[in-house]
């Protein structure tokens, strides 16, 4: 009773150890995912992926469907042709005044002059002053980075008619943000686009009816909300935070991400000469926001934007057109309820990265081949890109590079872990089965190792196999007559013959017991049909017959060399066995146990004195039924075997039917 309790206790401990091992593996998996997620998230916070993410952002801007041109704006551009025809730069105040007068005559709603006029450019300065007194005129200034590079507004223009044209550039020199307010050391200056929109709203959006707003434009007033964000009517403009989207370096002022209209003619443009000569359609000017600025390449007032980065062949955007794009966005947000860009919080970004890390881990665990792994990784990255783009089409900017890195890292780590586990499994298999299997069995084992190996062990399984025992007749007498060194060398030569034949006939050598050998046919890959069991039984018998032939040959050679000539016995039995890892963590072997093993051993050792040939092969009826009458056999009767309660029908295998029978009964 005590032994039984001890056994049950050990079994429970064994199961508990396996559960603990599985939990440990699961915990290791969770820790790996968390480390990858936090590591990639940390690299993102340090700005490592910002450049790549911004390039992806630009590409998504370029891939968006074209927008309709904004009918509310007009850009009057000063081209190279205009400068050549007028033969002057900077343009005189007189010419600027004439253009402003023309636009006022055509009833422009608001006019923004994106040309510095803090210094008079005679002739015509007084005429320009008169034009700048108009309430719908907006002048410009630049706060700059210091007092030294600051551009002041025209002296006689009131502050409420001045807008800044400072455009923040990202580290790669691309304009993607709109600086709505800029502190000049004394007051917060509104940007030119914001100042134009406020003036347009105060004029009650002449000639334009908002699609989604029932509130009159003139009633849309600015204020600061409880989050201290700028708000126009019911529309808030949350400040761009340092880590919004994939930014890690957004600093200064109240900024928003520009939603560029993607179209070659998103903002209508006409030349300054055409305005002066009256060649512009009056409908393009009346009730419109008109910006006047430079597009001549020689004056270098142009910027890179997401519309013209990368391999895109679009030219740089003139500064005045860039400001018009920002103006267009503000109008659409306030009057058409167009969404501003939204972003994930830091925690949401980490969760987003974790999701794709898990996807990579699942892929690496369930991809049986590296080709499938590569294909799956490509499909997951494509899915990630597709989801990111769909979100972008709905005004969301979510990270793409960081989850891609997490996905690839987990796939790589999964491959490394698989290789590591594979090597561990291979060592386990080789430790258990050694070099004693045929190449075919080794290949079958390795292909099915995921089913065979559990926690570094071959799990126990019950199957039908053919067990083979061999032993040398009178080996004890031979070993007493020779030195140990001599016996070891000669015995190794003999055992090598046995091992080669077992492997050739697709069996495994399970153990050596001095001169005795135990081999098994039909393990560790179980035979699933009666035909497969029969094949393994026939392979065992063929193996014994081949050993007999080789033994007859080597005996002649050994006799010439003065070595002992031997006779041997083989016992073969087919029946159920239990196979799997046997031993503890410090020493494992491939165990084959069951009554079939005992029976095969007893067949080999029964009637030792009845040695009728060089290699006596005895089988039981349980093996004979699988031989399909392909062999000449001799019935020895129902014999009592040691340790067996019932007698066993025993047969001696003489040879294969296709051989000439020279054996005697």
The separation of the N and C termini measures: 52 Å
> How big a fraction of the residues is strand?
15-25%
Q: State the shape.
A: rod-shaped
- What is the tally of beta strands? 23
Instruction: Give the count of helical stretches.
Output: 18
Which regions have little confidence, pLDDT < 50, spanning 5+ residues?
1-18, 661-665
Counted up, domains total 3
Q: Key features?
A:
665 residues, alpha/beta, Alpha-Beta Plaits, 8-stranded mixed sheet, 6-stranded parallel sheet, 18 helices, 23 strands, disordered N terminus, transmembrane, Nucleotide_cyclase, transmembrane helix
Offer a quick outline of the entry.
Helices cover 43% and strands 19% of the residues. β2, α5 (125-132) and β3 form a beta-alpha-beta unit.
SSE layout and pairing:
Blueprint: H1 2-45, H2 50-63, E1 73-78, H3 80-86, H4 93-105, E2 110-113, H5 125-132, E3 137-141, E4 162-164, E5 177-179, E6 181-183, E7 188-190, H6 192-202, E8 222-224, E9 230-232, E10 235-237, E11 255-257, E12 268-271, H7 272-276, E13 289-294, E14 302-303, E15 317-318, H8 319-336, H9 346-366, H10 370-393, H11 401-433, H12 439-447, H13 449-452, E16 461-472, H14 475-481, H15 484-504, E17 508-513, E18 516-521, H16 530-560, E19 568-584, E20 587-593, H17 595-605, E21 615-620, H18 621-624, E22 631-639, E23 648-656
Parallel strand pairs: 1-12, 1-13, 2-3, 2-13, 3-4, 19-21
Antiparallel strand pairs: 5-11, 6-7, 8-9, 9-10, 14-15, 16-18, 16-19, 17-18, 19-20, 21-23, 22-23
Helix pairs in contact: 1-9, 1-11, 4-5, 6-8, 9-10, 9-11, 10-11, 15-16
Protein name: Adenylate cyclase
Domain Guanylate cyclase: 466-604
Pfam families: CHASE2, Guanylate_cyc
